[in-house]
Design a protein that fits this description.
By secondary structure, this protein is an alpha/beta fold. 40% of the residues lie in helices and 24% in strands. It is elongated, with a radius of gyration of 21 Å.
Length: 283
């Protein structure tokens, strides 16, 4: 079992050198690579005439700028298609030209017919665009996404995977969607932080049930119950990654609402910004 179609989203400034690691991942996993190249459409600046009941006008160069961007986008799509052909990687390349407010919906359409998304920060997406793309995958599609900061590299077959587990639906979805990755790993470490040992919370033996389920799927599982010591879950996950030598983290995203995360911060936001290894998120 493996992820057969990998979705990635690129900015128009992405180079072949930046795309090469994703080509190698697709080749190693014998997977298709579905590439979406994004350009954000501008909003029209509309001007009203000073004359009562005058016509509304837009800037003279507005249409020309759109045509130029679409042309550049088409050229970039063609160049990436050539790169895939030369690398002998099966897949498809599509242009996504959308206003920022609709970008998450456009990305979600493509994610619905893929198995997993990979979004390294090296794909040259601006932060506001990256956020929309990530939102489209997590909140409007059925798949998970592997994210990686500038200091992290996605590898095809992680040897040691750390699962940051709790008894939430996003956490459960994450391990289901990441199962092909977990089955390929040499070791899967299931870590619980400050677990509540009660029937209505994490169970009387926290983590034992999910560890058994993973074992039934052929995973080599180690269970760890870890105290945070009041340092926060994100900090504790980062420490666990270092201690265990893990190559990948699997966890649920946005267990609280996005508004709460935006206003007060949260584990998801902290891991997006601070993880030194790739993170497989699902919501």
């Amino acid at each position: 079992m493996t992820h057969k179609t990998i979705l990635t989203v690129l900015g128009m400034d992405c180079t072949k050198q930046q795309l090469d690691p994703l080509l190698e991942i697709a080749r190693s996993l014998e997977a298709r690579l579905s590439v979406a190249v994004v350009a954000v459409a501008p909003s029209a600046n509309v001007y009203a005439s000073a004359i009562p009941y005058g016509a509304m006008t837009v800037a003279d160069d507005f249409g020309m700028n759109i045509r130029e961007t679409i042309s550049e986008l088409g050229a970039k799509v063609n160049s990436i298609e050539v790169i895939l052909q030369k690398a002998d990687i099966a897949g498809d390349v599509n242009a996504v030209y959308s206003e920022l407010a609709n970008l998450d919906a456009e990305i979600a359409k493509r994610a619905m017919v893929c198995d997993v998304a990979m979004l390294p920060k090296s794909n040259t997406l601006e932060d506001n665009v990256y956020s929309r793309v990530l939102s489209g995958v997590l909140f409007r599609s059925p798949i998970g996404v592997i994210v990686a900061g500038e200091a992290a590299a996605i590898i095809p077959k992680p040897k040691r995977v750390f699962v940051a587990w709790n008894s939430s639906l996003p956490s459960s979805r994450a391990i289901h969607q990441a199962l092909p990755v977990l089955q390929r790993a040499d070791e899967v470490i299931v870590g619980l932080f400050d677990p509540i040992m009660s029937k209505n919370a994490d169970g009387e033996d926290p983590g034992a049930d999910v560890s058994a389920w993973l074992s039934h799927h052929g995973c080599n599982v180690t269970l760890q119950q870890r105290p945070t010591g009041g340092r926060g879950v994100a900090t504790s996950i980062v420490e666990a990654i270092t201690e265990t030598g893990s190559d990948l983290v699997v966890m649920g995203a946005y267990g609280h609402s996005k508004l709460q995360q935006w206003m007060f911060g949260g584990t998801t936001s902290a891991m997006l910004d601070g993880a030194k290894v790739p993170v497989f998120f699902a919501h």
